[in-house]
Design a protein that fits this description.
By secondary structure, the chain is an alpha+beta fold. Helix content is 44%, strand content 11%. A five-stranded mixed β-sheet has the order 1-5-4-2-3. Strands 6-7 form a two-stranded antiparallel ribbon. A hairpin with a 3-residue loop joins strand 4 (204-207) and strand 5. Helix 1 crosses helix 9 and helix 5 (135-147) packs across helix 6.
């Protein structure tokens, strides 16, 4: 996957009563291995930037494969080989590389036990969690469940367990999962916004509705991008330079004349 940094196209921005804060909007899929790695790298870059208390982070829905059936009977290796048309040995190399990269940020991927699952219902549940201010907690829980714990993240009972684990009311979560229309439009709106940006791969980060960062970049790249964007939003005040000679003041002109 190639990565780049580029200006993002204008989209509707959310209202924020505090104009001094900066937004970071992240499009990702819980079935995307680089999205979990990118999440960790972004979090480290945010920490290194020292701006965590000044930035609002919001996750948005994206599906790598909307056509994936409700129940896929096969391994991740089988799925990738059939979809990408790659040799199985090549797929094995790819998965090993991703597993190694995940380990560098403290993640323990287990592709052997991974359950290939359509992520749409999980995205609906994530929007419900966002409405309860628990979106970040559920995002982390779902990613770990999918890549590290071998859980079926499209199974209704599993989703309810994970919702409860993330701090959501189980009964309310079960109601959302059972109602196929619940938060469906919110998910589709995220898809539409991603299309408006021209996003063709995830993770994708939009900083202050101005800059786009594509891919699981190193933490240093996120730190630099965040610092640059924040500096542009909050220009440093002028620093007055003292005259070389303390015996003379610099002559100036003003509305009342010159001195």
């Amino acid at each position: 996957m190639t990565s780049s940094t580029s200006p993002a196209s204008p989209v509707t921005t959310r209202e924020d009563s505090n104009e001094q804060r900066m937004s970071v909007d992240i499009w990702s899929d819980i079935a995307c291995p680089w999205c979990f790695i990118g999440k960790r790298r972004f979090e480290e870059g945010l920490k290194e930037s020292g701006l965590a208390d000044s930035i609002d982070v919001t996750y948005h829905s994206y599906q790598l494969d909307p056509t994936l059936p409700e129940h896929y009977h096969g391994t991740e290796k089988d799925y990738l080989a059939s979809v990408k048309g790659l040799d199985v040995s090549r797929v094995e190399q790819m998965l090993e590389h991703v597993t190694q990269q995940a380990a560098t940020v403290g993640l323990k991927y287990d592709f052997g036990n991974l359950k290939v699952a359509n992520s749409f219902n999980a995205h609906r549940l994530l929007h419900f969690a966002k409405s309860q201010q628990l979106g970040a907690q559920l995002k982390e829980t779902l990613l770990s469940a999918h890549f590290e714990r071998g859980l079926n993240t499209n199974d209704a009972s599993v989703l309810a367990d994970l919702a409860e684990e993330a701090g959501l009311d189980r009964a309310a979560a079960e109601a959302v999962i059972a109602d196929e229309d619940a938060y469906r439009q919110d998910v589709l709106q995220d898809f539409a916004q991603a299309q408006a940006y021209g996003i063709q791969g995830v993770p994708f980060f939009v900083i202050d509705n101005k800059y786009g960062v594509s891919g699981a970049q190193p933490s240093e790249a996120f730190q630099q991008a965040l610092t640059q964007a924040f500096g542009e939003k909050h220009p440093a005040p002028l620093t007055m330079v003292s005259p070389a000679s303390k015996t003379e003041d610099g002559a100036v002109c003003g509305p009342e004349g010159c001195n």
